[in-house]
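cron nightly-structures :: item 1 of 1
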Amino acid sequence: MSNTKKIKSALISVFYKDNGLDEIVKKLNSLGVKLYSTGGTQKFIEELGIPVTAVEDITGYPSILGGRVKTLHPSVFGGILARRDNATDLEQMKKYDIPEIDLVIVDLYPFEQTVASGAEHQAIIEKIDIGGISLIRGAAKNYKDVIIVPSVKQYQMLANLLNEKNGTSEEEDRIVFAREAFKVSSLYDSAIFSYFDKDDHSALRICGDDKKALRYGENPHQKGEFYGDFEGMFDQIHGKEISYNNLLDIDAAVNLINDFDETTVAILKHNNACGLASRKTVCEAWKDALAGDPESAFGGIVITNVEIDKATAEEMNSIFFEVVIAPSYTEDALEVLKTKKNRIILIQKNKEVGGKTVRSCLNGVLVQDRDTATETATQLENKGGRPATPAEIEDLLFANKIVKHTKSNAIVLAKNKQLIGSGMGQTSRVNSLRHAIEKAKHFNLDLNGAVMASDAFFPFGDSVEIAHQAGITSVIEPGGSIRDQETIDYCVNNKLALVFSGVRHFKH
């Protein structure tokens, strides 16, 4: 594929003019390229002392409707869409005195930024670009004859082309610019649709612009990429490149910690909490979170919702972990944490994670509302042999927050706002319970007076019996089994506190 073309004319009409446009314009002028422009861009070019022709001199019409219509005219789009190898097209261009346009440099009104700013609806509507998007699509469609530069992100590509090929381009070059153009237009249209569809969710549009290439996916033989605004949520201030698996763990960590208001430290491994505690100070929270499972903590992810100080950093530095996340760090704490060369240190700037979750499934995707339900004491329904004490209710709600973020089938054991045992991902709920009990005993954690949380109902009464025999005195579960009465009867007969939350928290 070849088809060499020389750039003889260019249409430039942009919203942003201070991102290297001056150098592009100067280079085009030095190559003898005739320039056409509109409004503020025309004035910008003129102030550079470079000759430019107003688009209205081509169309015979001024900009109208407050600037809504400037370039939407056959004399403009004919010059862009005309096929240079089509005799009929060339005859019509000559008949109507339509100039050829070989290069289009345009960008789009800042629609997404205007939405994000909280602007009023009408201000947002005015930032829906019509002429710009039409120019992009028209020029990209006719890539065989026209180069389209759809945003400032492609300025360097154009500069390289102008410098290396002295104002000429191959069809291979123009295809690359066309691809970038359709990427820009598809993202823009998706953003507009999402704004109008934000309440109804009538259809799914997933469109990412800038991708972050990862070292690999879950395993070295898998390619991995991330599409999203990681920098909008975090500042990475130290450590190695973030991996695919790191991102999954970071996502799980952020969603978990968001449910806790007290000073809390969580340690995660493979998307599940292996240690978690809420305490008066971050250092105490770290020590008790680590005590819950010091073996699994090795190589894990640490997150807290308060500033990390030097004392905590020194305690944390006693073990290897890959990532630490906090809203802030004292300077001396960072000195300690940075002694590990590869440790990833993140400052969490934003807690917002979006209201939907999306995952691939078969030849499509599954979309659901994010599980944001967090039960309170007033929602709990007493079903056992006695009411739960205030201290037990605190622990039950604490455990329930953790089990919500634990892979099903999930069981969490807690005491004094410390995670002391968990079982997850088992094919039966009773196996998850046995695993949680065994884990707590392995680390010499006292189960007497502990509480148990289950992410879904108990299908049989055996789980509460096993838990009771281990020393557990209070249980929270959603209820809803046809055999709930077995569980209720056992708790009544053995004076165990049992509360139904009415909310299931499956996490497959």
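cron nightly-structures :: done
The CA atoms of residues 58 and 75 lie 6 Å apart.
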